[in-house]
Amino acid sequence: MPLPKAELHLHIEGTLEPELAFALAAGNGVELPYKDTEELRAAYLFEDLQSFLDVYYSLMAVLRTEDDFFELTDAYLARAAAQGVRHAEIFFDPQAHTSRGVPLATVIEGLARALDGGEERHGISTRLIMCFLRDESAESAMETLDAAKPYLHRIAAVGLDSAEVGNPPSKFREVYEAAAALGLRKVAHAGEEGPPAYIREALDILGVERIDHGLRCMEDPELVERLARERVALTVCPLSNVRLRVVDTLEQHPLARMMDAGLLCTVNSDDPAYFGGYVGDTFHAVHEALGLGEEKLRELARNSFVASFLEDDEERRGR
Ligand code: HPA
Ligand code: ZN
């Protein structure tokens, strides 16, 4: 029996397995620049975040219909359930679809149909987190938030992803203020490739509840102390960090040191179709590479529920 856990850092577009990508491409008459799944998989040798994002966005061309988004999401839930996931807070990137002419309604209705069946079909409760692409303008993010207004009942929080360096959290101050005014919760990717100062901005300027990745906090002892004191959760993605060369090897990953420093860490898969494993595989990998024993793995699993939006959602709704 895999350890019951919540997954808090998962891009639904990053669960697009090569086999499904080719099947959807055939169904939608989309031509992929790869001969077959083997050739596509061979392209998954990334130098950094940007070289991954290039493949990630280009492969999204196969996602066109509501059924495509349903199928993608239902396939993720099935895989996640098999690895012990009981609750998933799922990122999606609306601008990566609307910019290709896929309406926001198509995306959200496909995702929502799969999530609505999540409990019954897979035993997984879910939340949706709408991410803004930080390498697009703040105006585009604000337009995206506006366009999402008919679907707010479907969306728990906003997030910030894509190319980090040069796109600090402060760029999105007004958008996050507007999101909060609409009752949305807030998270942001920070301190993956970007400096510790971006983590501070995400906390102080955007007012986020959790930091996605956050591992570069380890360069700033004062920040580590603050994150530990304020019990700010970090959604760490060790396999992603290795594949995107944020760290050289899994053995050198700071996760164990982060936990020893008193940080509220969770372990997540980020983009599992691209980075070599789903969240259960990730637990196994950190056990093997970092020597995290049963007790530490249980702590990580427990943290995933503590840091989730499950805990106080009911309370918030009553307010
Ligand atoms: N970082 C930033 N943007 C992303 C990622 C990531 O790890 N995955 C998908 N979009
Ligand atoms: Zn991510």
From TrEMBL:
Record domain Adenosine deaminase: where: 4-319
Annotated residues for binding of substrate: 271
Keywords per UniProt: Hydrolase, Metal-binding, Nucleotide metabolism, Zinc
Claim: Cytoplasm is one of the keywords in the record: no
Gene3D superfamilies on file: Metal-dependent hydrolases (3.20.20.140)
Cofactor binding annotation: Binds 1 zinc ion per subunit.
UniProt xrefs under InterPro entries: A_deaminase_dom (IPR001365), ADE (IPR028892), Ado/ade_deaminase (IPR006330), Metal_Hydrolase (IPR032466)
Annotated binding of Zn(2+), by residue: 9, 11, 189, 270
Enzyme class: hydrolase
Site (Important for catalytic activity): 213
Catalysed conversion reaction: adenine + H2O + H(+) = hypoxanthine + NH4(+)
Molecular-function annotations in GO: hydrolase activity
Pfam families named among the record's database cross-references: A_deaminase
CDD domains found in the cross-reference section: ADA
Keyword Oxidoreductase: no
Cofactor(s) needed: Zn(2+)
Enzyme Commission numbers on file: 3.5.4.2
Reported function: Catalyzes the hydrolytic deamination of adenine to hypoxanthine. Plays an important role in the purine salvage pathway and in nitrogen catabolism.
Family to which this protein belongs: Belongs to the metallo-dependent hydrolases superfamily. Adenosine and AMP deaminases family. Adenine deaminase type 2 subfamily.
Designated name of the protein: Adenine deaminase
Organism encoding this protein: Streptomyces maoxianensis
Lineage: Bacteria, Bacillati, Actinomycetota, Actinomycetes, Kitasatosporales
